[in-house]
Amino acid sequence: MPLAAPPLPERIRTLAATSRAGQLVVDGVRCPVSGAVDGAGRPVLLVRPGEPLHPLRGDAVVSVSLTSMRVLGGVEHPRGIVEVQGWAEAVPEDEVRAAAVAIAEHVADEALFEAIEGYGSPDAPRLLRLDVGQVVYLTGEDSGVLDADEYMDASPDPLAEVAERVLAHVNGAHRAQLASGVGRLLGLPAEPVWLWELDRYGATVRIGEDDPALVRFPWPEPAGTVVGLEESLRAILCTC
């Protein structure tokens, strides 16, 4: 029987890859932070002079909250929150540019250039990353904890990047077709309806406004290619 959704560690890694850091907790104190995750799933943080972690020269026990948002009709809705707990340490000099690029994909900030060009200077912004200890997640009705190995050994959905582009296109140009197809499959009207998640195992649609429901449509078999993903999605969009 095909999986209806990605394995949980893959799902959380994919969610983290599309998230931006919003809050840091160090020594029990909460403060805002700019950052994202690198290719290995580790949070990477832009830390400015005067912020609690800027003087760090060893490591420190911290937690970083990553929030993934979905924009529907110009309004942001939270998809999930991933809290990564671990030890903050300086990004090595030979990896600092890659860390800056990972953050820039989510947050454009001139201080990223300063962190690269001023690496090692006591007055320059710094780039730090987390050595992951455990990951706490809350997404939809699912919540729990992954240990470091479960999280780090998983990989994001290999079709995640193109899936996000397809999802944005459908929500921007084909919502009427989506509503008709979903209504046909459910046997009842479905308005308003948005494509909420799209991955190699299926699609999740968001139906309703004030009290929205999430409905999952698994594919008969996992999509292994972009073409396979698009063909699977047509089964929902087709109104015939």
Helix content: 25-40%
Q: Which runs of at least 5 residues are low in confidence (pLDDT < 50)?
A: none
The fraction of residues assigned to DSSP E strands is 35-45%
Strand order of the largest sheet: 1-2-3-6-5-4
Question: In the CATH hierarchy, what is the architecture of the largest domain at level 2?
Answer: Roll
> What is the general shape?
elongated
Please, what is the CATH homologous superfamily of the largest domain? Electron Transport, Fmn-binding Protein, Chain A
The arrangement of helices and strands along the chain is: HEEEEEHHEEHHHEEEH
Give a quick account of the main beta sheet: strands, pairing sense, barrel closure: 6 strands, antiparallel, barrel
Number of DSSP strand runs: 10
CATH class categorisation of the largest domain:
Mainly Beta
Quickly give the structural class.
alpha+beta
What's the N-to-C terminus distance?
27 Å
By DSSP (H or I, 4+ residues per run), the number of helices equals 7
What is the CA-based Rg, rounded?
20 Å
CATH topology of the largest domain: Pnp Oxidase, Chain A
- What is the averaged pLDDT score? 92
Query: Please, how many domains?
Result: 2
Organism: Nonomuraea dietziae
InterPro entries: Haem_oxidase_HugZ-like_sf
Protein name: DUF2470 domain-containing protein
Description:
The protein has 240 residues and is α+β, with helices and mostly antiparallel strands. The chain has 2 domains: 8-153, Electron Transport, Fmn-binding Protein, Chain A (Pnp Oxidase, Chain A, Roll), CATH 2.30.110; 160-237, PNP-oxidase-like (Split barrel-like), CATH 3.20.180.10. It is built from 7 helices and 10 strands. It has helices at residues 8-17, 96-104, 111-117, 148-153, 160-173, 175-186, 226-237, and strands spanning 20-26, 29-37, 43-47, 60-72, 75-90, 126-139, 142-147, 193-199, 202-207, 213-218. The protein has a 6-stranded antiparallel barrel. A hairpin with a 2-residue loop joins β4 (60-72) and β5 (75-90). α2 packs antiparallel against α3. The longest helix is centred in the last third of the chain and has 14 residues, at 160-173. The model has no long low-confidence stretch (mean pLDDT 92).
